[in-house]
Design a protein that fits this description.
Blueprint (H helix, E strand, L loop, with lengths): L22 E2 L7 E4 L7 E6 L4 E4 L11 E2 L6 E6 L5 E5 L3 E5 L6 E4 L1 H4 L3 E8 L2 E7 L14 E7 L4 E7 L9 E8 L4 E9 L2 E11 L15 E6 L1 H8 L2 E2 L5 H6 L9 E7 L6 E5 L7 E6 L3 E6 L3 E6 L13 E4 L7 E9 L2 E10 L2 E11 H5 L3
Parallel strand pairs: 2-24, 18-20, 19-21
Antiparallel strand pairs: 1-2, 3-4, 3-27, 5-27, 6-7, 7-8, 8-9, 10-11, 11-12, 12-13, 14-15, 15-16, 16-17, 19-20, 21-22, 22-23, 23-24, 25-26, 26-27
Length: about 375
């Protein structure tokens, strides 16, 4: 998902500028606050090339990429963690970064699938991860056909992609495209945009498959999907932000030190779960965002300036700071850069970064942080 760039002030925490030294904050004795240096052995920077990724000493020193609309850029567009702790980052126009408790991931690619489609909406149905592919009519002039692939399953064991649902299965016309998707664990909700001449119209549908999605044929045929039309209000209801006071208790507790008059929006996901939920605190006209993931053993939230909150213990490890909230800052990014989606796999925190200008994205990549060295060493 694409997030607006933000400038997030220090939110009531004591930040150390001298590096990764740990210190109990005077503002809240229950928190340990620290900031990572730009260069140290506890983290590494990576950037995306045209067909892979490579290590770099600083993101601003990676090769210059021309700014493109975010739908057409190679960038991390979504991410989540499976129930068993595998990190999955979906990379638009490239593939999937799959982290299995290691610092560097397996890059799973399929050029035919990813090259001319926009990827997004990483979700889990049961234990299987899925994502969507769409073609934007503005950038892809060819009309869609009934076999255009839409929902794709990732096989974690085989490291391969398997088509599940096509545009034809959703009974879309040639002029139509899916402009929005939400999965609540049982039903899929889609916004359908149709263009005929100069006229643009929208309709909204709720649909689900008649059998387990993992067993579906990759080709279009009748009987795969049950579809009903819904109102725009019904569609908006499932994916509109709600008040932060309605957020899960663990998330509210994690971020309770943030002043109540500081506006922000949290995109909250459950590990191995459905589409994210959105929670707003205050009137957030400035586009201040954080991504959060809730897992059974930990909860983490990363703001786009790198302010990170963590509570719990890494898988198979003791609680950090006796389970009390830890706040720390990732290395400061240059102007017009921001942190985006993240995952935690094993002892590694992996966070997407990108250069942006309004709706366009330039250079992009990811940062890996060795939380073992930060919190368990010495």
């Amino acid at each position: 998902m694409k997030l607006s760039k933000i400038c997030l002030p220090v939110i009531g925490i004591c930040v150390l500028l001298s590096g990764c030294t740990k210190k109990v904050s005077k503002h809240n004795p229950q928190k340990v606050d620290l900031e990572l240096k730009h260069k140290s052995d506890d983290h590494k920077w990576f950037y995306f090339t045209d067909d892979s990724y490579a290590e770099i000493d600083l993101p601003q020193r990676s090769p210059i990429h021309s700014l493109k609309p975010w739908t057409e850029s190679v960038r991390i567009c979504d991410g989540n963690v499976s129930i068993d702790g595998k990190g999955i980052l979906l990379v638009n126009h490239l593939g999937v970064l799959y982290f299995d408790s290691a610092e560097t991931p397996v890059l799973i690619q399929d050029y035919q699938l990813f090259s001319d489609s926009t990827a997004g909406n990483l979700v889990f149905d049961g234990s299987n991860p899925y994502f969507t592919l769409v073609k934007n009519s503005f950038f892809n002039k060819a009309t869609s056909d009934s076999n255009q692939l839409h929902v794709i399953r990732l096989s974690e064991n085989q490291k391969m992609f398997y088509p599940a649902v096509t545009y034809g299965d959703l009974h879309l016309e040639d002029s139509a495209e899916v402009s929005g998707t939400y999965f609540d664990g049982e039903n899929w909700f889609s916004s359908i945009k149709s263009t005929k001449g100069d006229k643009v119209s929208f309709k909204y549908i709720k649909w689900n498959t008649q059998s387990d999605m993992a067993s579906l044929s990759p080709t279009t045929h009748d009987g795969k999907v049950s579809i009903s039309q819904i109102t725009e209000a019904s569609y908006r209801k499932v994916n509109s932000p709600s008040a932060f006071s309605n957020a899960p208790v663990r998330l509210r507790e994690l971020l309770r030190s943030i002043p109540k008059d500081f506006p922000f929006t949290v995109i909250c996901q459950d590990a191995g779960g459905n589409s994210p939920r959105y929670f707003e605190s205050g009137n957030d006209d400035e586009g201040t965002f954080a991504n959060a993931i809730i897992k059974d053993s930990w909860i983490c939230a990363v703001f786009s300036d790198g302010t990170t909150y963590f509570s719990g213990g890494l898988d198979g490890r003791p609680l950090i700071n006796n389970g009390k909230t830890v706040a720390f800052r990732l290395p400061k990014l240059p102007r017009d850069y921001s942190y985006q989606s993240f995952v935690i796999s094993g002892t590694y925190l992996i966070v997407a970064w990108e250069e942006s200008d309004f709706y366009k994205t330039g250079r992009s990549g990811f940062l890996t942080v060795d939380m073992e060295k930060l919190f368990y060493s010495n």
